[in-house]
Amino acid sequence: MSKSKSKGAKKAAKKKDSDKAAKAVKGAPKLSSTEAPAPAKSKVKGKGKDAGKDKAPKGKDKAVKGKGKASKGAAPKPEPVAAAAAPLAAPKVYDVPVDVDPVEKKLHPDEPISSVLRVRRGFVLADFDPASTPGFDEGRKEGEKALSAFAPEIGEWQERLFAETKGGGQRSLLIVLQGLDSAGKGGIVRHVMSNADPAGIKATAFKAPTEEERQHDFLWRVRKALPGPGQIGVFDRSHYEDVLITKVRKFVPAGEITKRYAIINAFEREVIDSGTQIVKVFMYISRDEQKARLMERLDRPDKRYKYTPGDTDNRAYWDEYMKAFQVMLARTSTVAAPWYVIPANNKWYARYAVQQLILEKLREMSPDWPVPDYDIDAEKARLADS
């Protein structure tokens, strides 16, 4: 009898543990098969390590059923590939180039900036705090110190990317900067890319299209501005103006705008497949911060050249622009080319965050010095005898 009770007790305990485990699994957040564990909404308030974090997206992963088994009659769906094909890969992979000095730990982000600022399914721009500093809570002084400390690494990667072309490399990097007037796009080019060789940077500022550009499709001028092998391209505004100002000011029919989202996604996929990686950044400032910056431009003689009356005219469309940005982020933040929303009220943080995003991508690409196609010892001997 006691033996029977013992077995029953063990069985009951085992069932209780099993029920607890099942509840834990049932309550765990479900993720898309194409996304890493990350938030569905970015509700950022204040500073700190938890700023920018939120709940993971809901929904079942349709690509996975059962315990890792493929469904009958269908081949397993391949994972999306964001990196370039094997022939474009670097000879070696480095986390950080050995040629640069290490940066002290406190100047590194608390977690990858790409993780805390990436736009994922369910993102709501209105919930995002443009005055926050997610991923880095050391303050302005340390942030500016970090910007200087990491600058040599960007210069080193850029030189390697250029040198790689001497060995047949075809890769490049494109940084897309979007944002309203005075959001700080120009400051990114000046401060973040300061250690890069100007010869290896291709910067393009997109203004209103010219008469010639209007005679072609909206991507014509963008294709002409893409970086060549070994270059880092920087777009101050971009092809996204053609789903922003054209949408807000109704320069193009709504149906045409809707088609352009899919065209842009296909275009960026084509660019990436050709060997150009893309980092898309939306510089997000508050309405009050923009007013203060525009007023400063009017107050200072050395800043007035940056101001145009149209900057104030556009403020009348603020709400419409916010809606247009929301749709843009939702429709064009893809696995291969996601959007990153940068809280830009603090210029020092915006520059630091974009710098970290660029460094993450360059480390991922890991360009390296090319292998010589000649006999080094033989060349040394020839040179010694010359």
Account of the protein in words:
This protein is α/β, with parallel strands linked by helices. It has a domain at 114-365: P-loop containing nucleotide triphosphate hydrolases (Rossmann fold), CATH 3.40.50.300. Helices cover 42% and strands 8% of the residues. The protein contains 13 helices and five strands. The protein has helices at residues 2-27, 113-117, 140-164, 185-192, 211-214, 220-225, 245-248, 254-273, 287-299, 309-314, 318-332, 347-365, 376-385, and strands at 172-179, 201-205, 232-236, 276-284, 339-343. A five-stranded parallel sheet has the order 2-3-1-4-5, sandwiched between helices. Helix 3 runs parallel beside helix 12 and helix 4 packs across helix 12. The longest helix has 26 residues, at 2-27.
Q: Estimate what percentage of residues fall within beta strands.
A: 5-15%
Regions with little confidence, pLDDT below 50 for 5+ residues: 1-18, 20-90
Count of helical regions: 13
Please identify the top-level CATH class of the domain at 114-365: Alpha Beta
- How many strand elements? 5
Rg, Cα atoms, Å: 25 Å
> Which sequence of strands runs across the widest sheet?
2-3-1-4-5
Topology:
Layout: H1 2-27, H2 113-117, H3 140-164, E1 172-179, H4 185-192, E2 201-205, H5 211-214, H6 220-225, E3 232-236, H7 245-248, H8 254-273, E4 276-284, H9 287-299, H10 309-314, H11 318-332, E5 339-343, H12 347-365, H13 376-385
Parallel strand pairs: 1-3, 1-4, 2-3, 4-5
